[in-house]
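Cross-posted from the bioinformatics board.
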Amino acid sequence: MNIILLSGGSGKRLWPLSNDIRSKQFIKLFKDESGQYESMVQRVYRQIMSVDADSKVTIATSKSQASAIKNQLGEKASICVEPCRRDTFPAILLAAAYLHDELGVGEDESVAVCPVDPYVEKEYYEIVKQMGELALQSDANLTLMGIEPTCPSDKYGYIIPESGDEVSRVKEFKEKPDVETAKKYLGQNALWNGGVFAFRLGYLLDKAHSLVDFTDYRDLFSKYESLEKISFDYAVVEKEPSIQVVRYGGDWRDVGTWNMMTEVMAEATKGNVTLDDTCVNTQVVNELDIPIICMGCKDMIVAASGDGILVSDKERSGAMKPYVERVNLDPMYAEKSWGSYAVMDAQKGSMTVKVSMHAGDSMSYHSHDIRSEVWTVIEGEGVAIVDGMEQHLSVGDVITIAAGCKHMLKAITNMSIIEVQLGKEICASDKHKHAMD
Amino acid sequence: MNIILLSGGSGKRLWPLSNDIRSKQFIKLFKDESGQYESMVQRVYRQIMSVDADSKVTIATSKSQASAIKNQLGEKASICVEPCRRDTFPAILLAAAYLHDELGVGEDESVAVCPVDPYVEKEYYEIVKQMGELALQSDANLTLMGIEPTCPSDKYGYIIPESGDEVSRVKEFKEKPDVETAKKYLGQNALWNGGVFAFRLGYLLDKAHSLVDFTDYRDLFSKYESLEKISFDYAVVEKEPSIQVVRYGGDWRDVGTWNMMTEVMAEATKGNVTLDDTCVNTQVVNELDIPIICMGCKDMIVAASGDGILVSDKERSGAMKPYVERVNLDPMYAEKSWGSYAVMDAQKGSMTVKVSMHAGDSMSYHSHDIRSEVWTVIEGEGVAIVDGMEQHLSVGDVITIAAGCKHMLKAITNMSIIEVQLGKEICASDKHKHAMD
C-alpha cells in the first residue's frame, strides 16, 4: 500500500523533550518487540510494515524534521519536504504529486494519508490497508477512518454515518460540538474524525488541478509558498458528496501532552533515575548524564534534557505552553542530517558542543564568517577537508578552523568530537555552504 | 577574640548541592546585607566580624575543604588542616596547638570553639564573645553555650544548670533523652548543648598534655593519625567539674536537611527557575545553565547541580541519604585551591571539563602518566608553563599536553578553559606534582 504520513509541526507541550526543532514524534519513549526504545515515527513505521511489508511510506514534513527522520528511519521511507508550512491540503497535494511524478505511483493506485501522532494498535493499520483496498473497489471518492468514541468529547470533529455497519456511507460531518450535542451524536452511531483518508491517486490529482494551477510536482514545489493555507477537511472532504467511512474501535490516543504520554510510556522511568518507595504514579524521563532522585512524588512527571527540566503535577502539565514560551531558550540538542550535537557550555564569546556522528555521516562543506572552531576528536576516526586539504582524524587529533575557512567532516567509524566555537557572536545563521573545490 | 570554627565532614543530605568534596557549609543559599549570595561559612565569618572586627578566626577542617574555604574567604581566616579525620577532641586540640605554636596566641588568652553549621542570629556571636570574656574572668574552667529549647526534642544533649540565670554553673549533662524525659528537663531550666565551648588556651593545653603525649603543634600533627577518635564532650567536658553555661535564646537552626534549609533560604528560587501560579510552598535551587519549570508542585524541594537532580517532597527529603549513596557518582563539580572545574562530558576514553580560574589563581606544576590534555582558552589570559617553557595564553589559544608532560597555568585575568582529557583511563589519582625546574 502507498501511505503518506503527515509528520506535523514542532510542539512545546512535551518540553523539554520536544522543542522547536525536535518534534514529539521523535522522542524515544516506546519500545519495539525486542525491547529497544523507539519513537512514534519508528513505532508507526514498524506497525505499517508488520501489516504490509511492501508498503511504500512517504513522510510529508518540513525541512527542519527531515534530518531527524533520516536519522531514525534511515533510507527506508521517502521524504517529501515542504518548502514552508501550508496546512494539510497543500501538504497532501504536494505529497500526492511527489508520489506520482517522483516515485512513479500510478493514478489507479490507492493512497492512504495518516497523521503520525496517534498512539494506536496494529489493527489501526489493518484498517488503513483495508481503506486503501476499498478506495479502489467501491465507488466512493474518499474513504475515511472513523474512530469509535469512548466519551462525548468536545475535542474532535464528528462523522455521522448512514449506518452502524463496519463500512458505511457518510451522511454528514459535524464540527467540534459541545458535550451535550456530542451526546446526541453518540446516539446516531457517530464517529470521531481521525484524520485518515484513502483515495485513488488519480481522484486527488484531478481535484488538485481543479483547485490549483500547476503542472507537476516540481512546478507545485516552486509555487508552494503562494498556496492558500487550508486544511484537507475544508478544501476537499467537506465538499465531496461521495464518502464512505470505516470504523476503528481499538486503542487510539493523542499523546501530545505529558499527562497522556505517561499513560503509554514503555517504562515508568527512562535514563538514570531513582524513585523511592513513596513515589506514586510518577514517571521520569532523564536524557541527561547526571542522576535524578525522586522522593515522595505523587502524580508527577519529571523530564530532563539538555534543553531544561520539567517538574510537574500531571494534570497541570497540560498548561505548560506559556511557561515554556517564556523560557525561550535556544535548543541545546539537535539531530541533524550529519549527526547530532549537544551544547555543553555557552558563555559570552564561546560555545562548546559535543558533535556525534554515525559511521558514514558527512557534514556539508561550509564556513563561518565570525566564529573560529577548535575540534578535538574524542572517539572514532574520520576525514576532514579543510580549505581543500584532506586530513585523516583519529582520537586525540586537534584541528583549528579559522573564521572564513571552508571545512567538512566525514565519519569513517562512529565518531565524537568536542567543538569549541569562539567569536564575538555565536549564532546558527553564521554558516555558508560551499561546493567542494 | 580567638575563634576556632569546626568545619565538619562532607554531607550527602543536601545532595546534589553537597557531595563528598563540597560540604553543605559552602553552598551559597543565604544573602549578605548587600544582597549577594553567601554560604554558611561566609555568613558565619561575616557575623563574627560584625561583632568583633578584630576576631582571629581559625578554621579547623580537613584537607578536602581547605580549597573551598580559601576560595570563599580568601586569606582572611587561618586554616588548620587535619591530616585525617579524628573526631572533635583531636581536632580542637590540634587547632589549639596551632593557635599557640603557629599563630602565637598566649596561654592566658581565651579561645571559643564553634561549629560552623547552625543558622543563627548575630546575637549568638555576641554570646560567644561574652563567653570568651567569662572564660578569663570567672574561675570555671569551661564555659558552654546553652541553647534555650523550643520543644522537648530527643535530638540534642541537655545541660542542667544550677539556676535559670543568664550565666550559671552546670549541675549535670544528660545524653539525648526520650521526649518524655526531655519534658521533665525543661522544668529544670535545661538547655540544649550547642557544641560551643570557651576556655583559657593554657587550660586546654594542660589538659591535652595530660591526655596525649606531644611536644608542640608539628609533633602533634605528625602523630595525628595515631590519636583516638573521641569527641570533645566525652574527653573533656563530661570529666570537668568546673563548668558554667551561658544561655542563648535566639534563632538557632540545624540546616542540615533540605526541609530545614528551605526555611531559611534567602529566596524561594535560585538560578534559572520558573514556578507556575499553582506551586505552593516549593523551593527550587538550580545551579545548571538550563531552565527548570515547575508546575503544580506542593511542599517540594527541587535542587539541580552538575552532580544530579533532586525532586522531593520536603518531609521525605530527610530520608534521602541511602538513595544518594546508591547513586554513588563521582562529583561533577569541585572548587580547588586553583579555581573550580565542572565535568561537561564523560565517555569511555575521554572527559571534558570546564576549568574556571580567578585572576591570580595558579595550578601546581604537575603531570599525568596516562592521560593527555587539550586546552582551549575561551575567556581571559594567563601564562602556562609546559615542560619548563613559558607560554602566554589568550582566547582561542590551544595547547596540547602529552601524557608525562609537566604543566601548570597561572591566570592573569579571570580565565576559563575547555580541557579535553584523553586516555585509556581517566582518574583523579593520575597526577604527580613537581617542583618547578
